[in-house]
């Protein structure tokens, strides 16, 4: 599992950058402050970074521009093709996903992603976080920006609101994918051995940052 939503990105890839720029009314609030969210991840990251689900390469580009070494992973062939156009020609984008990916060629100090972690179920998220902890040294970080909700009620409310606004694609998306409840995510990070903090970036997106304890 974990790759069950890939077909969506095959269809979405060619106009994905229009969405992140806020040109689609349904997803405008989800991508509000997108470039600021990416900037925040870059600022919090160390110098040796693995990035999951790079999409069209927007975060990768910023990480590289800040002089960081990046090991980029993306399961969608279409997205990899688009990202390749945006990134320096020597950058290799690896086929992999949040659970199965090639071994990084350097010791990592940070693992990042934006708008990706909700593709795993909560059980898968817990297992993946333990794997990430094994790949980091003490003080190493996992920094994930993603849509998440403070409670099941908050998620249900957003689905109702989206349907009222006739944002049917957004409502279906919120019902279909594995958007995490924040208390659950905090527990999963803790169980995997991370000290954790969280910050809200817009109506939907939060940045969760875990620092490996030992
Ligand atoms: C909403 S896009 C986010 C792209 C990019 N990170 C950004 O912030 O613009 C989600 C990306 O995650 C990828 N993806 C889907 N399932 C995945 C998985 N299980 N593991 C890693 N990436 C996945 C998709 O192909 C897509 O490129």
Description:
This protein has 214 residues and is of the alpha/beta class. The protein has a single domain, classed as Rossmann fold (3-Layer(aba) Sandwich). The protein is 41% helix and 22% strand. It is built from nine helices and seven strands. Strands 1, 2, 3, 4, 5, 6 and 7 form a seven-stranded mixed β-sheet that branches. Helix 3 crosses helix 4, helix 6 runs parallel beside helix 9 and helix 7 packs antiparallel against helix 8. The longest helix has 14 residues. It is globular, with a radius of gyration of 16 Å. The relative contact order is 0.16. The model has no long low-confidence stretch (mean pLDDT 96). It binds S-adenosylmethionine.
For the CA atoms, what is the radius of gyration? 16 Å
Gross morphology is: globular
Beta strands, count: 7
Bound molecules: S-adenosylmethionine
CATH H level, superfamily name: Vaccinia Virus protein VP39
Class per helix and strand makeup: alpha/beta
How many helical elements? 9
Order of helices and strands: HHHEHEHEHEHHEHEE
The CATH topology annotation reads as: Rossmann fold
* Amino- and carboxy-terminal Cα gap: 30 Å
Number of domains: 1
- The residue ranges in which pLDDT falls below 50 over 5 or more consecutive positions are none
CATH class value: Alpha Beta
Looking at the overall shape, the CATH architecture is: 3-Layer(aba) Sandwich
Quick one: biggest sheet? 7 strands, mixed
